[in-house]
Design a protein that fits this description.
It is a single chain. The chain has 220 residues and is α/β, with parallel strands linked by helices. It has helices at 20-29, 37-44, 50-59, 77-85, 88-112, 143-154, 158-167, 188-202; strands at 9-13, 33-36, 64-65, 74-75, 117-120, 135-140, 180-183. Helix 1 crosses helix 8 and helix 2 (37-44) crosses helix 5.
Length: 220
């Protein structure tokens, strides 16, 4: 009987606007199933979910869009973040309520897929997600690039962007926990090459020269 190969699961983490999504998208172009934990969190905060009811019960209707129209009410994540951003206890409570649902959803997506998987999660190392990953990659960037990305992609003012970046300076990454550290302050073509070379190190049967044009190295 042919031995079944273990599924490749890469965990991506890093600070806000560090370039995690760019690396995930490169891996997706190479045949990976990309899972964005932040996007999954959007799903678990949807109306009629247990998380929705718990969060509204804790913070009240002030975090809702259309609070006077129950059929249209939805959690405004930007408004919610303002409540938990400067309140460590509130943030811990929110994570304790939402993370089990997020992790369960991610595990289900992994089980249902035959593809190699990449999980993008800023909280990768502080949750059970880390134990799912055979490889853990840390994506880093300089502060000015992070600020520029936040302004460009999220429409934040320079002041708001600086506050967001500064708030994460207290995060101390243990570099020994990671299989790779990727500096994303490079052109996209160079970033793609970095990713392919890392995949080549993981699997000696891959040759990065064959996949520079976007060919999927994991297709049969």
């Amino acid at each position: 009987m042919e031995e079944r190969k273990q599924k490749i699961i890469i965990g991506l983490t890093g600070g806000i606007a560090s370039g995690k999504s760019e690396v995930r998208k490169i891996l997706e172009s190479l045949g990976f199933l990309g899972i964005d934990a932040d996007q999954i969190s959007h799903e678990v905060f949807q109306k009629d979910s247990p998380v929705f009811d718990a969060v509204v019960g804790r913070f009240g209707k002030k975090i809702l869009d259309f609070p006077d129209h129950p059929e249209r009410a939805s959690i405004n994540r930007m408004r919610l973040s303002e409540f938990v951003f400067s309140d460590e206890d509130a943030l811990k409570w929110l994570e304790s309520v939402s993370h089990p649902y997020i992790i369960a959803r991610i595990k289900l997506l992994i089980e249902q897929s035959d593809q190699p998987v990449v999980i993008e999660a800023i909280k990768l190392m502080s949750t059970d997600l880390a134990s799912l990953c055979g490889q853990k990659w840390l994506v880093v960037s300089n502060e000015e690039t992070q600020i520029h990305r936040l302004m460009e992609k999220r429409g934040l003012s320079v002041e708001s962007a600086r506050v967001r970046v500064a708030a994460q300076k207290s995060i101390c990454w243990n570099l020994d926990d990671f299989d790779a550290i990727i500096n994303s302050n490079v052109p996209l073509s160079e970033l793609r090459l970095k990713v392919i070379l890392l995949l080549e190190k993981m699997d000696a049967n891959l040759d990065w020269k064959d996949y520079q044009d976007g060919t999927n190295p994991f297709s049969s």
